[in-house]
Amino acid sequence: MPITMTAQPQERTSELLRPPRGRYLKEQAIRALFLLCGLSAIAITLLTAGIFVQGSLPFFREVSLGEFLGSIRWAPLTIPKSYGVLALIADTLVITGIALLVALPLGILSAVFLSEYASERSRRVLKPVLEILAGVPTVVYGFFALRFVTPLLQQTILPDLGFWNGLSAGIVMGFMILPLVASLSEDVLYAVPRSLREGAYALGATKFEVIWKVVLPAGFSGIGAAFILAMSRAIGETMIVALAAGRTPAWPPDPTEPMMTLTTTIVNIATGDHEATAFIWSALFAVGLLLFLTTLVLNIASYFIVKRYRERYE
What we know:
Layout: H1 2-17, H2 21-62, H3 65-70, E1 74-75, E2 82-83, H4 86-117, H5 120-131, H6 138-155, H7 166-190, H8 194-202, H9 207-218, H10 220-235, H11 239-244, H12 262-270, H13 279-309
Antiparallel strand pairs: 1-2
């Protein structure tokens, strides 16, 4: 009898602690949904890569990888034909570099102001206003570069600047990716523990010294990841360079002259009067595969930068 009396309270306690069956099934369903979403993203990425590889195989049967990456002449419609993308890669990198020179200083300084100097009320107002720039259609940025920035540069410091040029496209692209740099960097700096700042102040550091020697080094991993993601976004931009930079490959790259990027090349092929089975379409897939691999490598690099330089606070 004593054994029976002891077992009954234990059974009742286990029944009370056991979650309801409906709640357990709901949690399992949510977990399966999240898993499905994650697998879908991986499947779409692999499917995209497979389509590009399959579509570019006819191209690489006719054009060697050395000619594709090593030649500076891109002339798929002339005689003799040439499919070298070295000039296109150089033009893409030059315009991307101009954009980063605009976006990084302004973005990091904006992030420092929002996280260190702005009041909480100002931060809640200014950060959404800054992020509005990310919602502006890129075609609007392209017309802004073509009809405002280029004439402004021609009337002030560069009177010989061409109507189509890489400089105005790069400057406006910098303002396009500015919200990405500023928002990610601000989140990282704002998340630096307050105790680090207070410890530096206790040692007699000024506010500038705290920002420069404590906050920015602590958020280096996030700022580095923002830099690479912004670079990836700039390399993949299409409408700004298609409208403002021109459609003529430049070698050596000169940002004051018309330039042609990898994305503009895809636009030219896709909007041209070519049959879907034409060989030039396989060239489109080859250029797309190059862009896909470039952005993939940059995103993987950002992950390793975050993992390598991330600060851990206990």
